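Thread title: Can someone regenerate the structure for this chain?

I was given the following input by a collaborator and told the matching structure tokens would be attached. They weren't. Posting the sequence so someone can regenerate them.
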Amino acid sequence: MRVGVLALQGGVAEHLSMLERAGARGIPIRNASQLAEVEGLILPGGESTAIGRLLHRSGLAEAIIQRARGGMPVWGTCAGMILLAREIAGEEVRHLGLMDIRVRRNAYGGQLESFIAHRVVPEVAQAPLPLVFIRAPYIEAMGPGVRPLLDLEGKTVAARQEHLLATAFHPELTDRVEFHRYFVQMVSAQE
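Best answer:
Regenerated them for you:
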């Protein structure tokens, strides 16, 4: 199984490594022709505004939107969650607008307020997972087709809408592969 990782900016190498551990072949995606070669796509953390601009300049935005609307699983982590969102609170801009969520950027503060929480995510793992939050967003509102996977202190930080997955944290920065296995299973189920 071939799963792409958007390779314009952000935590690409870490996701590629975790995909290999999860039993999939990770492919860096830099253009629309490479996107055609994969069955699923991860939008990594990084700087959402910069990644969004690069997506549109490269022509990848429209290609991702078309593939996702056709059923390709897409997982956004941190900045990737912002890219997936239908709406960004307090902003006019929208990047891909695929997932029926409204997110708040940098909701937990700046770089110095980064933290790690440990929580059980029942649909993903029965043991607590380390959740790395770095300038993380959270989900303020969800449409009826979105279901929360994890709330942290009353704020939704992981959710799924059919073949779309969003996490405010960075599973790729831990040694635990459960979230990547969960996404690989999502991709496998779409084949």
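The longest helix spans residues 178-190.
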